[in-house]
Amino acid sequence: MRAPTSLLWATLCLFLLAACSPTFDWREVRGAAPAPYTALLPAKPASLTRPIRLSAVTVDMRMQAVETDGHTFAIGSAELPAGVSASAALTEMKSAMVANIHGSVRKEEATAGGIAVEAAGKSSNGRPLYMQARFI
After folding, report:
1. What pTM did the predictor assign?
2. Environment class of residue 98 by beta-carbon count within 10 Å: exposed (0-12), middle (13-18) or buried (19+)?
3. Dist. CA 71–CA 49, nearest whole Å
4. CA triplet 100, 105, 108: central angle to 5 degrees?
């Protein structure tokens, strides 16, 4: 009679341990110079750099991003050359990000040094997408 009880407890303990596996394993990530930052991302991010076109200049965008549990978290930075308006670049970045989700801005407000945006759109397969972003 004791063996089935012990087996039941062992099985229950295994299920409880499996339930402790974190979907979001938050960790601190840092950006390198010339645009240092510190942010929390919910898993180990992939890093990439790609050129992006802003008005009359091309800049290298450095990004760290991760997708977990159906959510994408990303942080990016780019150094603007002298003479390029930061506020104009932020507006262009916002427009490009909203276009990436084939969306429209639902809420936008000025923040200290930037723009906070909420937008909704659809993926190429019709799945609804929601974006919350800050451009600083």
Report:
1. 0.74
2. buried
3. 21
4. 125
